[in-house]
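Sample pair:
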Amino acid sequence: MKTFTTLLLSMTLVMHSQAAPLKSAIINKVVNDVKVSEKSAPAQSASEGQKLTKSSTVLTGRKSRVELLFQDQTVTRVGANSIFRFGTDSRDMEINKGSFLLQVPKNAGGAKIRTATVTAAITGTTVMMEYSPGKWLKFIVLEGVASLTNKNGDTIEVKPGQMLVMNPDAQDFPKLLTINIDKLVKTSKLLDKDIFGELDGEAVILIDNTVVQQLELRRKGALLPSGVLVNGPGAGPGNPGIEPSVQTILPVRKDSDISSSPKVSPPKVSPL
């Protein structure tokens, strides 16, 4: 009985530590114009090595990016022209506009990413997201699995190599697409090793596994290049998206934070 009680207590302590709230973040990398506002204080220029211990808003300008490292080794990279918020004493993050990459280590307790209309729950996963209010939302899983929930309470599971592209005000989730993860890794500024360095080693291995699996599916003819390459969907409220008869793989646009979305209707959106 004592052994069982000790084991149960140990499991409880582990579970508690895994779900520990995000208490602080270190600014690891600053590229060009990046500002941070803690609580309601005026925004100030960010500096590398700066520690954030309060609920903060991160703002990036044109061709500007920043990497945050939280106390549990959760990594957030915020792309250009973005407004990103995170709260202390929780594991919630919010993107008001723009793009970011989030890598949550295994057993770290996961995180929730919120927009005005869609919430993503991730656990031990590497994802990328781009959000333009009233226009479009892109969500990509590089490794792991994420679950998205809309305002109606409907959910959809996004697996490695899959991308969801939708009008954020749509009532229903569209069909998931497949994105070329190999090209995404090679072209995305948020994954540029010369700017940010490598992600967590385990995450890199799992992302490489996604690339290998896609290459094998292409070799077998089960995953075909689509040739679809546009700047942004901008569809109406229904956002029918692409409904290919065969599974397709989308290419990516070079030197942007998050690239590639299906061509559903204008207007064009310039790269971030």
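The first strand starts at residue 25 and ends at 31.
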